[in-house]
Amino acid sequence: MNFRSKVHRNVAGQARSCHRPERSRLRFTRNSTIEVLESRLVLSASIDSMADVARQILVEYEPASNVQVRAANRYNGNLAIVRESNDAIRGLLGYGSMEVVRVSPGESLEGAMDWLSRQPGVRFAEPNRTAAPAAISDDPDYVDGGLWGVYGSDSPEPVGPSGTTNVYGTAAETLWNQGVTGSDSVYVGIVDEGVDINHPDLVHNIWVNPYDPPDGRDNDGNGYVDDVNGWDFSAGDNSVYDGISDDHGTHVAGIIAAEGGNGQGVAGVGWNTKLIVAKFMGASGGTLDGALAALDYLTDLKIRHGIDIVASNNSWIGGGYSQAMHEAILRSAAADILFVAAAGNYGVDNDSYMPFPSSFSSLTGTDAMPAATYESVIAVAAIDANGALPSYSSYGASTVDIAAPGSGIRSTLPGGTYGSNTGTSMATASVTGAIALLKAAHPGASAWRLKAALYESAIPTASLTGKVSTGGRSNVYEASRSSVWDLPANLPTAVIDDATIVEGQSGSRTMRFTVRLSNATDVPVTCDWSTADGTAQAGADYTAASGTVEIPAGETQGVIEIEVFGDRLLEDAETFDVRLNSVTNAYAEKNIAAGMITNDDYSPPVVSVADVSALEGNNDRGVLAFVVTLGSAVPEDLSFDYFTTDGTATAGLDYVATTGRLTIPAGQTDGSILVRILGDKLIEENETLELRISLTDPWFTISRDQALGTILDDDAKGAKGGGHGKP
Q: For the chain, which domains are there?
């Protein structure tokens, strides 16, 4: 079969701090972001003050590092320990220890990070950050009718009770009507505040850890004692509910999996989905290291115990790019867990704003972890009951993927109560619930297939055109009927990676784009491809090309080669695309790669050679050392041809005729040419010769291409003649 890929445009020249490709402008897209989705919380692992977090550094060590090395680094750097990672889980995941340290008052955070990054055993050091929830409480009176987000259009046949109709809902009720209400073998991680585990609409769906019963021991060996329902990474204990301050987490949990059909309260999208509480925000918010620990906790549960965790719900925002968080998401993606993240409540274009974690991408790797073969990050915007993109919802044609109901959403609240909240937090939970419900309908589905079905079935919506990559809103009923489910069970995903090359000053170089498959198959995978201009122009900067790359049966990679031309024009980095136009026997998860041609050109330096003089001497050991000088260093070797000519001095009698080539290495600014003097004992006038240099490359300017060499006579009057004499 031949499956046409969806457009997925990568950001060319994206700064390292972004680490993600652009989202597709049609159907397939990804993202990551950390921002405040609600009005208050801040990421916190021990309820640190904002001022204190601003002085904290997150340090990741190599797996082989030991406690003595870490202690020495803290001592030598005058750093105080704030928290240490759970080495049990990090060890199981193949990672070294992580610490949060605090710089001393008056010392530079940047200076301490730079110093730490160069110390023994340290992989990297980065600022610890804060994060906050992403919902806006807009209805303290708990207005009824807040379940519109699960309604359907009632077309062609009415579904559900009278009045439960809204074309902009996700149509979850249509699936319920068909007997698909969720599964207690499907799990979702709530990476958020705590959850009221005794709420009557949640109590039956709260996960109970069968591997660590409450006996005061760490029975499952993950470093957390009696993590019965999850863990509180903010306070460092097993209490995942701490009262009314956990309203955001409780509300999000209810949208995903409030128990339906029980005659009370509300119904979540997936009634029977099991909720694992990975609390990392307390009453004052949370910190980055807490979020990392929460995500790794879920990954460990899936890898070691086989718990079918399909997604983590991340209705929060917090700071800029973090390598540590990026790698935690990559570990999660490798475990086949989707990372659903809120776009944010700032009403801005995330293509420019780049909030995290929703702006992360699992299609971009790090120095320690390879990229995934599917995009695990789903960034979610909100829509209201009228299908409009609310003014509060952030958006992004490349960085936000899909929209879901987010305004006036009724759900569970602490103390067994209910209420309506508004924000992209609510929309995010709706998408997470939809993923869980799809998994219940298709138990064997992989993460990429769940996401692909959701995107493929997104309902085009006028308010979302050019605002999210799919151009539409979530509809779980249509997703359950997507053509994605008809694809072969072992069908691999195909991803084409971005590439970067240094241009060079002349000639051509080969730029290589790698096409990766998620798994090998017993049939070849073929990809028809072609190039397309970006800021780089075919013919001037690269060779326009097209063709087919075949990945043989049993293999997982193929390479596309493009010829890139060098020049000496001072210009910005330029980009072009390589597009997989069609893929056979695989599903194109990312079908556009950005090729970046980086500029290595420079302003040509002024070149000159200087006059020189030297004593004649009597033993033929004197030398004239001519110095060729560049006005500035250049990033390439420069070579000069040179030769001498007679002046009043005669070659063979007064000096040795000299020709050759001088090379000044890249990065240096001068070089010497030596001309040997033939000394004598004759009393005579000073004598001269000339040295000339030439450089065939017309791009350089030689301000002085010849220099005078003067042989200074040093013979005293009355001395006896000798040597070769003169005619």
A: 31-39+132-486 (3.40.50.200), 50-128 (3.30.70.60), 493-598 (2.60.40.2030), 606-712 (2.60.40.2030)
Q: Among residues 325, 329, 245, 314, which one has the least CA distance to residue 278?
A: 314
DSSP state of 174: H
3-state secondary structure 410-458: EEEEHHHEEEEEECHHHHHHHHHHHHHHHHHHCCCCCHHHHHHHHHHCC
Instruction: Pick the more confident residue, 160 or 279.
Output: 279
Q: Provide the 3-class DSSP secondary structure of residue 344.
A: coil
Count how many Cα atoms sit within 13 Å of the Cα of residue 53 in the half-sphere of its side chain. Answer: 22
Q: What pTM, to 2 d.p., does this model score?
A: 0.80
Catalogue the active-site residues: 192, 248, 425
List alpha helices for 156-287, DSSP H.
172-177, 247-257
Separation of alpha carbons 486 and 447, rounded Å: 16
Least confident of 93-97, 457-461, 493-497: 93-97
Whether the pLDDT of residue 35 is over 70: the answer is: no
Distance CA 339, CA 378 (A): 6
pLDDT of 85 over the 80 cut: yes
Q: Given this model, what pLDDT does residue 46 score? A: 36
Q: Which amino acid is at 183?
A: S
Contacts of 86 (CB under 8 A, 6+ apart): 222, 223, 224, 293, 296
Angle at 152 between CA 478 and CA 462, to 5 degrees: 75
Please check whether residue 453 is in contact with residue 484, taking contact to mean a CB–CB distance below 8 angstroms: yes
d(CA 20, CA 33): 11
Strand order of the sheet with strand 670-676? 670-676, 623-630, 606-609, 701-704
Instruction: Give the list of residues 6+ apart from residue 723 with CB closer than 8 angstroms, or none.
Output: 618, 679, 680, 681, 682
Q: Which of 138, 176, 171 is nearest to 155 (CA)?
A: 171
Question: Which of 328, 253, 248 is closest to 288 using CA atoms?
Answer: 328
Note whether 11 and 18 are within 8 A (CB).
yes
Determine the Cα–Cα distance for residues 583 and 492; give it in Å rounded to an integer.
Answer: 11
Buried b (16+ CB within 10 A) or exposed e, 96-111: bbbbbbbbeeeeebee
Q: Which distant-in-sequence residues (6+ apart) come within 8 Å of 22 by Cβ?
A: 8, 9, 10, 11, 29, 351, 398, 399
What is the DSSP code (8-state) at residue 245? G
